[in-house]
Amino acid sequence: MDNKFFKSVENKTGVNMNDVFKLAGSLQNANFKDENTVRGVIKKVAQLANKRVPKEMEDKIVQSITSGKEKLDFNTIAKMMNNKK
Fold first, then answer.
1. Which InterPro entries does the entry mention (predicted)?
2. Residue 50 falls in which region: left (phi positive, over 0), alpha (psi -120 to 50) or beta
3. Of 1, 26, 74, 76, which shows the fewest CB atoms inside 10 Å?
4. Is the residue at 13 inside a domain?
């Protein structure tokens, strides 16, 4: 993928791709069974996306990921953050 593609994504989302790559790199050896690790990732993703995650929603996401019901990736977190339930 070329730089033009990443610039297009940045323009559409407002998220700096270098920050996304840094976060992705930091997740490679992370322990997703650890609640504190998962909470940190959720907070970082919310910060990158400029979204607020209510405590109740954060708790649901953490429970789902640490229990192994969901894998931790940007799509999973974004879907849970946008869920109105």
1. SpoVIF (IPR025942)
2. left
3. 1
4. no
Q: How far apart are CA 19 and CA 85, in angstroms?
A: 29
- 50-69 pLDDT, tens per residue? 889 999 999 988 998 898 87
For the record, the structure tokens of 1 come out as 């993928």
Q: What confidence category does residue 85 fall into, taking pLDDT thresholds of 50, 70 and 90?
A: very low
Closest listed residue to residue 39, CA positions, set 60, 12, 17, 16: 60
Is 44:23 a contact under the CB 8 Å cutoff?
A: yes
Enumerate residues 6+ apart whose C-beta is below 8 A from 53: 42, 43, 46, 61, 81
Range of the domain at 78: 18-82
Q: What is the tally of structural domains in the chain?
A: 1
Q: Is 32 contained in some domain? A: yes
- H or E element: which one contains 28? none
